[in-house]
C-alpha cells in the first residue's frame, strides 16, 4: 500500500515539474492584436483579388488607423477604398 502511495506521489511531483517546461503561444493567452489582423487581412485580400486590390494602400491604412478599420475580403464596403479599375 505504501508503494502505491509513493508511486502516485512521484507521478504528481513529476507532473508539476513538467508544467514549468511547457511552452504555449502567448497569443492564445492574450487578446488579439487588431493591427496584426489588419495586416494579415490586407495580404489575404491581395492574394484573393490580385491586381484589383491595392495592398500597399491597405497596409498604409492599417498603420494610419492603428488597425481599427480591418478589411474583410468578402465585404465590399470594407475593401472599396483599396480597389482599382485596372
From TrEMBL:
One of the record's GO cellular component terms: extracellular region
Record's keyword annotation contains Transcription: no
UniProt cross-references to InterPro entries, sorted A to Z: Eclosion (IPR006825)
GO BP, one annotated term: neuropeptide signaling pathway
Extent of the signal sequence: 1-24
Alphabetical UniProt keywords: Disulfide bond, Hormone, Neuropeptide, Secreted, Signal
Annotated disulfide bonds: 38-62, 42-58, 45-73
Keyword Secreted: yes
A GO MF term: ecdysis-triggering hormone activity
Subcellular location: Secreted
Domain of life of the native organism: Eukaryota
Family listed: Belongs to the insect eclosion hormone family.
Protein name: Eclosion hormone
Amino acid at each position: 500500500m505504501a508503494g502505491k502511495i509513493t508511486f502516485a506521489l512521484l507521478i504528481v511531483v513529476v507532473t508539476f515539474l513538467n508544467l514549468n517546461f511547457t511552452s504555449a503561444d502567448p497569443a492564445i493567452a492574450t487578446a488579439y492584436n487588431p493591427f496584426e489582423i489588419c495586416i494579415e487581412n490586407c495580404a489575404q485580400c491581395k492574394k484573393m483579388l490580385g491586381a484589383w486590390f491595392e495592398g500597399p494602400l491597405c497596409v498604409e491604412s492599417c498603420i494610419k488607423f492603428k488597425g481599427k478599420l480591418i478589411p474583410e475580403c468578402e465585404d465590399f464596403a470594407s475593401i472599396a477604398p483599396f480597389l482599382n479599375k485596372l
